[in-house]
Specification:
This protein has helices at residues 18-32, 79-84; strands at 38-39, 49-50, 56-59, 74-77. By secondary structure, it is of the alpha+beta class.
């Protein structure tokens, strides 16, 4: 008999729980912004104003290259800027 294959996603991943993600986003806003909003930091490309609802966490060293969600490896970004480079680092996108 074979072992069943687990499919789908769980909340047990590197991103952590919903509470962990909310705390991480608030830390980015408090650290990079004024406590309520922050500008998009992704290479200062778009300058979008981000709030708790629109901010995404950009990892400086991508997850596919071993980067985690440590506070020394994250910065705020808007969703379009964050997803436009995929797993590329700043150095490799130039």
């Amino acid at each position: 008999m074979t072992t069943p294959v687990r499919r789908g996603t769980t909340n047990r991943n590197a991103r952590g729980s919903a509470t962990d993600r909310r705390i991480r986003k608030q830390w980015l806003i408090d650290t990079w912004g004024d406590g309520e909003k922050v500008s998009c930091y992704r290479y200062a490309r778009c300058g979008a104003i981000l709030t708790m609802d629109t901010i995404t966490v950009d990892r400086i060293v991508p997850g596919c290259q071993g980067g985690g969600y440590a506070r020394t490896n994250i910065r705020p970004a808007c969703a379009p800027c964050n997803s436009s480079t995929g797993g590329a680092t700043r150095r490799s996108t130039r």
